[in-house]
Amino acid sequence: MNLDKINYLLPIYNPYSLNLKKVKGMYIYAKEGKFLDLFSSLATNSLGHRNCKILKSIRKQSRKYLHISNYFHNPQAEKFAKLLIESSFKGNVLFTNSGTEANEAALKIFKLYGNKYNKEKIFSLENSFHGRTFGSMSLTGQREKNKKFGPLLENIKYLKFNNLEDLRQNIDDKTCGVFLELIQGESGINIVSREYITELLKLKEMYKFLIVVDEIQSGLMRTGLMFSYLHYKFTPDIITLAKSLGGGLPLGAVIVSEDLCDLINIGDHGSTFAPNPVAVASGYALFKEIRKFKYYHNINLMSDYLKFELNNLKKLYPRIIKDVRGMGLMIGVEVVGDIDFIKDKFFKSNILINITNKNIIRLLPAFIIKKRHIDSFLNCFKVILEELEVNEND
Ligand SMILES: *Cc1c(COP(=O)(O)O)cnc(C)c1O
Questions:
Q1: With respect to CATH, is domain 52-290 assigned 2.30.40.10?
Q2: Separation of CA 217 and ligand 1 centre (Å)
């Protein structure tokens, strides 16, 4: 591949300069070498690259047909929807092609609910990320970044993160709903407190609004349980899914609780492609796999190990590592110092990490990660930290 060709793409990304050859499990193979992937293509390849059960399911479906319009029954989608409902809560599933589309659809349901009960206020959280299209961008609590696309949707306000007083002051009987990630991904693994959810549920009891949990990044075992809301022991009205849902193919979903399904009628929403039968076959294979105990076990074991060791490093290098946080295999390391240097050093040691919100190393490894992969990462990190420490003392 000639890298000059990249100029034909609108430059909205800043990719690694790698010439990819193939991928397998935890690794990406390029002309430049073999790289350990610690963010699984932004949590999309949660079983690692080229999982054989997923590939088999894709092959099987693509021999039958690649796409068929929604004028026909979609047995793959029906089968997958049943599985999703059995693992979440009573209701129905609407499939989409992406995360942002799932959030747009959830927002439309908010509007149907709000218009029916005369409630117009919608809330999301500061620093949240919900997508790049207009509705989801308006929900995204990063106005500074998005204001150049304004005006954005009206009646959306951002609540202060984990601030109970601010929550009480804003919510009232005009509240249609609250949209939130329980563990914010893009903004650097920020965890919503239990007290915040307890207060939110108390207010919901009083004012009857909807809660959408955006599980696009945190769902599907990423945090060590099937969905992040299970850590909080409550059931949302709606959840949105995407990223790993399609097993590496584009697929999103909205799970809508039973009592809201009447709000939506034939023709209220639709998509030419969603749910694409191949994407659904791929996602179905992924989902059946991640329900297995061995993944639950490995995610939690590796999570504990990684967090324990990172906290030890934090004690050794308190000036550089400010915080270690996360659940399951969604872990953030907040660092102070030259982040480009850190990223580059990892890269030169053939380790691919993701940096989010300027100074947070976001680890989103595949669920097949083993102790030896973590050790490679930690050993490399130690060398980098030592170097940074020396530089600081200079
Ligand atoms: C990635 C992400 C989205 C957007 O998903 P796309 O498939 O990129 O549209 C929305 N919400 C959260 C929490 C995400 O992590």
A1: no
A2: 7
pTM beyond cutoff 0.85: yes
Q: Ligand 1: distance of its center to the CA of 262 in Å?
A: 27
Ligand 1 centroid to residue 17 C-alpha, Å: 24
Residues carrying CATH 3.40.640.10, the chain: 52-290
The 3-state secondary structure of 1-32, one letter per residue? CCHHHHHHCCCCCCCCCCCEEEEEECEEEECC
Residue appearing with tokens 């951002």:
158
- The alpha helices in the chain, defined as continuous H runs, are 40-43, 52-64, 75-87, 99-117, 134-139, 143-146, 164-170, 194-207, 277-290, 293-316, 339-348, 371-393
Mutate to test the pocket of ligand 1, among 100, 184, 238 (most ligand atoms within 8 A of CB): 100
Note the pLDDT tens digit of each residue in 114-166: 999 999 999 999 999 999 999 999 999 998 889 999 999 999 999 999 999 99
Please give the DSSP secondary-structure letter assigned to residue 337: S
80 lines ligand 1 (CB under 6 A): no
Nearest CA residue ID for atom 11, ligand 1: 130
Whether domain 3-37+294-393 has CATH 3.30.160.40: no
